[in-house]
Structure formats: C-alpha cells, structure tokens
Design brief:
Number of strands: 8
Distance between the termini: 74 Å
Strand order of the largest sheet: 1-2-4-3-5-6-7-8
Number of domains: 1
Largest sheet: 8 strands, mixed
Strand content: 5-15%
CATH architecture: 3-Layer(aba) Sandwich
CATH topology: Rossmann fold
Mean pLDDT: 92
CATH class: Alpha Beta
Radius of gyration: 23 Å
Structural class: alpha/beta
Helix content: 40-55%
Amino acid sequence: MHHPHPARTNLSRPLRLMITALAALALLLAAAFGFTAWQAAAIERRFPNIGTLTDIGGYRMNALHVPAGKNADLPPLVFIHGASGNLRDQEAAFLAPLRGRAEMLFVDRPGHGYSQRGGHENDTPDGQAAAIAKLMDAYGMQRAVIVSHSFGGAIAASFAVFHPEKTAGLVFLSPATHPWPGGVDWYYGLASRPVIGWLFTRLASLPAGLLLMDGATKSVFSPNLRRERYVDEGAPALVLRPSTFRANATDVFNLHDYVARIAPRYREIKAPTVIITGDSDPIVLEEIHSQGLARDITGSELVMVHGLGHKPDYVITDLCIAAIEKVAGFERDLQATAKVVETRLQQSGVPAQSAMGASIERN
C-alpha cells in the first residue's frame, strides 16, 4: 500500500490556512468596496444636484445660479466654499436672506459637489480661480463681489490677483490664505497619493467619515452651536464619496506650498476688502491668515469677533451680509455690528478637536 510522503502532509495544512486567510481577506476587501459604493450612491440620492453643469472647456463645473430681483441693490455675488464643502454650504447660509438683492452664483469647486475635477491645474487655488472666472463668463457675469469661506479664501485671493478686472470686492470669512507652522492631518497626504490613496478612499475614509460626521461638524462650529439642520442643509457628507475625498485631500495637501509662493502677491490686490474672523477658530489660525490679509491688502478692514469659531457664515450671517454691503459701497459700521453679535454668541461646550476631512492646519 502506498503511503503519502510525510513532508507533503505537513505542507498541506499551512497552504490551506493561507488560502483560507487570503479568501477571507478578499471577501473583506470586496465587502468594504461594496459598502463604499453603496453608501456613496445613498449620499447622492439624499443630496442630489441642485445646480446646473456648465462646460468650461474640457470639463463641467456645477453651480446654482440665482438671478437678481427687480429691485436688486447689490452687485453680482460669487460664493466659494471651503475644504470638505460644496455649493449647498454657502447656499444654505446666504440664499434666503439675500434672495432678490443680487445675482448670485454658488459654486461647486472643481472636484467638489457635482463639479468635475478637470486637469491637474485644479490641484491648486489659481487653477480653481481660473475655472470660476470661466464659469462667470459662461453666465455673463463681468464683475462680482467674491465671498469666500476658509479654504475658499485662498481661491478668492488668487482670483483677485489673477483676475482683478472681474473682482468688484472681496469678503473673506475665516480664511486660509498664508503659510502656517506645522502640517496637515495625516489622511490628507495618504488620500492624495496615486495608488494607496485610491484604495484608502474606497476602503476606509467613507465608513470612518460617516462615524465621525456628527462630531466633526460640531467641532468645525465650536465653540459655537452648530445649526440644528446643518448636516442636512449643508450636505457635508458629499465629501465622503471617494473621488471627492481625494480631490479635497489634494487641495489641502497642496495648500501650504501654494500660499507660501503666492501670498507675497496679495499686496497687488486693490479691490475693497473685508475680513471677518473669530478669536476662537479651531480650524485655522486667525493671527496668521486673517491678520496676514489685513496686513497685505491695503485699505482692507479686519473684523475680529470674540468667541467666534470657524463658521461666521452661519453663526453671524447678519455681520457677513453687512460686510458684503460695505464692499458694495453702503455705509456700514462693521466694528459696532461685531460688538452687537458678540453679545449673542453662546458657547456650545463642544471641545475643539480634529475634524476628519474638514481641518486645515495641524499645529
């Protein structure tokens, strides 16, 4: 009778274990990929496109265009959202109180919301500023007041440098515009890398982001209370879709080197400018960015609000609108208005913490 060789018998069990482990790993990876695809589709069903896609030369930009009313008293307004945002973020804050007063364009930046990414020129703020300029041309908007929040501030500043003829005024809200000490959170660098970033955004970032979304958005508003329906109205979950998360990560990862190169040119900006910031911002350092803009842009006005976090667009919308009015030529005492809004700010008790997909700086 023939008996198996003992060595072959001993090798078969480790081989079977290895095959089993690889099969289990393959099933886990397939489940993770499937979960991400399922949830990304669910996010888009929950937050469908409310704008219009426009070809600007090789790719399409998405925006919500709102015509001016019969009694409009303000120049055209272009709103640029920050990191991890989309056009709904600024639309939910400003559309209702400003409807009828101006022609308004709420923009999905390249790769965000429902805008296509375009080429590598959109990996930095100057490329995105050029995309917005082309979009304005498509809508027949010759000049506009550019209202920007957070990361959008770097794009607005670049817009004013490279497209001064289109810049009627600038309103910066908690801007990120200057080089800062330190770096950015680790996942920005990881998600922006060619291969591992593709895997990370399809395996881990979406489920992690869903778990962290409530706390992260509260942290962005901290120390102020987050608007109750912000997660529904601002649709921050759109950033968790893999391609959008990678675009956002690339934006933030590239920001420091870009602003280090371009910030010296802010002195060229001549448009009327107001900068609104808080002394309790957990996301960006106001003493670097906001005070830096006030130093660099001759004639600009810095409005510092005590107790304000990173979301003046929602927390003190009336002061932001007063700033828009002032750059448009209205007489407005913004410093006095700032004192009024300070008295109504309530501390939320939410500790400032790392907000996945939202924070800009890491000290």
